C-alpha cells in the first residue's frame, strides 16, 4: 500500500509536523514507508520552496498561498500510484480564506483520501462550515481525536457517523526516567516545579498561572514555574515578543519573577518527555472551553505527569477517572488552591501520576499506529472488493450481450 501524507513536515517547528512524523513512523511498523513507495507532500508557510531542509521522503512542496501548487500537488499524487492520501487539517496551514485552497487539491484528487481534523469548531462561520463539510463529503473517512469532536461533526456539521472515526492523539513510547536524575541532567533547580510547554500566545492562559504564583509561594517558597517553548510564529510575526515580555512584566509587578523561568526553545520529544518527568505538576490553564484537541495535554498524560487544567473539552475527557485535576477558567485563586493541596499531599499527587501513566500506555504511538493501519487497510480492501464486484458485473453483462438473442412469439 502506497500512502501519500499531506501535512506540514519536519524540520518545520509545528505541532502538525511532529504529529505527522510520529504517524508515519507508527504506520511504518506495518506498512513500510520506503518499500511501499510512500511519500510526503509538505506545506511551506512562504513562497520559498527551499525554506526547510526536508529529507528525501518529501517529494512535493506546496507554498501555502500559491493556489496552483495545490492543483499541481493533486496531479503529482494522481500520477504517483498512491493508494490512499492522508491529510492533516488545521485551517491555518492552508492558503486562501480559512484554508479553502485545500479544496482545489481534494477536488482534483483521483486517489481516495482520509482527513484528520485537528480542530473542530463549535460555531463555525458559513465558510468554515462549508469547507469542513466539503472535505468530509469527499473523504473516505474523517478522523478526530475525541468524543466531543465526533458529537460536533454529527450535530453541527451534519456529517454521518458512519464516516467519522475517533482515534486518540498518540504519545511517545518512552520509559519513565528517574525524576531527580533527569532534573540534574536538564540543569533544573531542586524544589517544587510547575511546567507548561508549547508554542506561546495569548490563548494559553499563562497569565492565570502566573497570578496564582504568589499564593502558591506562600505555602511552597521553593516553587518554580517553567514555561517551555517559543512564541507562536503567527504571534511573533504580528506582535514580536510583546506577549512574553508582558508575562515577564506581570511577574515583576506581583513580585514572582524569581519563581518564573522561561526556556525559549522548541525541544524534541525525548527532551520534552524529560521535562515532563522532572516536573511535579503540569499546567494547562487555557482560558476557554473550545479546545477540541491538545497534543501537549496528551503528551503530559502519556508521560505520567500530574496535570492541573481548566475544563476545556479535551481536558474534561482525558482527565476523567482521577487522571488529573480541573479548575475554573481564569480563576487563579482556585488554581493556587489545587496546586497547594497537591504539593502538600504527595500521596494524592503520586496517585494522579500513576493513573495518568497507566492510561497513557493505551495512547502510545505503536498502538495508535495499529489503529490507523487497520483503518487504511480496511478501506483499501473494501475498495478493491467493490472494484472486483463491479468488474465481474460488467463481465457478466458484456457476456450476456454477446450471446445470440432468441425470440419467442406468443400467440
UniProtKB/TrEMBL annotation:
CDD domains, per database record: GT4_mannosyltransferase-like
Domain Glycosyl transferase family: 182-357
Cross-referenced Pfam families: Glyco_transf_4 (PF13439), Glycos_transf_1 (PF00534)
Lineage: Bacteria, Pseudomonadati, Bacteroidota, Sphingobacteriia, Sphingobacteriales
Ranges where the Glycosyltransferase subfamily 4-like N-terminal domain occurs: 102-171
Highest taxon in the source lineage: Bacteria
Name of the protein in its database record: Glycosyltransferase family 4 protein
Source species of the chain: Parapedobacter deserti
Gene3D superfamilies found in the cross-reference section: Glycogen Phosphorylase B
SUPFAM superfamilies (alphabetical): UDP-Glycosyltransferase/glycogen phosphorylase
PANTHER family reported for this sequence: BLL5144 PROTEIN, GLYCOSYLTRANSFERASE
Amino acid at each position: 500500500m502506497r500512502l501519500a501524507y499531506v501535512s506540514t513536515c519536519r524540520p518545520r517547528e509545528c505541532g502538525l509536523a511532529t504529529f505527522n512524523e510520529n504517524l508515519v513512523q507508527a504506520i511504518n511498523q506495518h506498512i513500510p514507508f520506503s518499500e511501499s513507495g510512500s511519500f510526503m507532500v509538505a506545506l511551506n508557510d512562504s513562497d520559498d520552496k527551499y525554506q526547510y531542509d526536508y529529507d528525501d521522503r518529501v517529494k512535493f512542496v506546496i507554498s501555502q498561498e500559491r493556489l496552483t501548487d495545490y492543483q499541481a500537488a493533486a496531479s503529482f499524487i494522481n500520477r504517483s500510484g498512491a493508494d490512499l492520501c492522508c491529510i492533516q487539517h488545521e485551517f491555518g496551514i492552508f492558503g486562501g480564506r480559512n484554508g479553502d485552497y485545500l479544496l482545489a487539491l481534494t477536488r482534483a484528487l483521483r486517489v481516495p483520501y482520509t482527513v484528520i481534523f485537528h480542530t473542530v469548531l463549535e460555531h463555525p462561520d458559513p465558510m468554515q462550515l462549508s469547507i469542513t463539510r466539503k472535505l468530509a463529503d469527499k473523504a473516505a473517512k474523517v478522523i478526530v481525536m475525541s468524543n466531543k469532536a465526533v458529537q460536533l461533526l454529527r450535530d453541527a456539521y451534519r456529517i454521518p457517523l458512519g464516516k467519522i472515526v475517533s482515534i486518540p492523539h498518540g504519545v511517545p513510547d518512552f520509559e519513565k526516567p528517574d525524576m531527580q536524575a533527569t532534573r540534574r541532567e536538564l540543569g533544573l533547580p531542586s524544589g517544587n516545579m510547575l511546567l507548561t510547554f508549547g508554542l506561546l500566545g495569548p490563548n494559553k492562559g499563562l497569565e492565570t498561572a502566573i497570578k496564582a504564583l504568589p499564593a502558591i509561594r506562600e505555602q511552597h517558597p521553593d516553587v518554580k514555574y517553567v514555561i517551555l517553548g517559543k512564541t507562536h510564529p503567527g504571534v511573533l510575526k504580528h506582535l514580536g515578543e510583546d506577549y512574553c515580555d508582558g508575562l515577564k512584566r506581570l511577574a515583576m509587578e506581583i513580585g514572582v519573577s524569581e519563581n518564573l523561568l522561561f526556556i525559549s526553545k522548541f525541544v524534541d520529544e525525548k527532551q520534552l518527555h524529560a521535562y515532563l518527568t522532572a516536573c511535579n505538576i503540569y499546567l494547562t490553564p487555557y482560558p476557554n472551553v473550545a479546545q477540541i484537541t491538545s497534543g501537549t495535554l496528551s503528551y503530559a498524560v502519556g508521560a505520567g505527569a500530574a496535570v492541573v487544567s481548566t475544563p476545556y473539552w479535551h481536558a474534561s475527557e482525558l482527565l476523567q477517572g482521577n487522571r488529573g485535576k480541573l479548575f475554573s477558567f481564569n480563576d487563579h485563586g482556585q488554581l493556587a488552591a489545587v496546586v497547594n493541596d497537591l504539593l502538600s499531599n504527595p500521596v494524592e499527587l503520586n496517585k494522579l501520576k500513576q493513573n495518568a501513566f497507566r492510561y497513557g500506555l493505551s495512547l502510545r504511538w505503536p498502538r495508535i499506529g495499529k489503529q490507523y493501519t487497520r483503518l487504511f487497510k480496511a478501506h483499501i480492501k473494501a475498495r478493491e472488493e467493490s472494484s472486483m464486484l463491479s468488474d465481474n458485473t460488467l463481465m457478466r453483462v458484456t457476456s450476456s450481450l454477446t450471446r445470440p438473442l432468441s425470440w419467442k412469439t406468443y400467440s
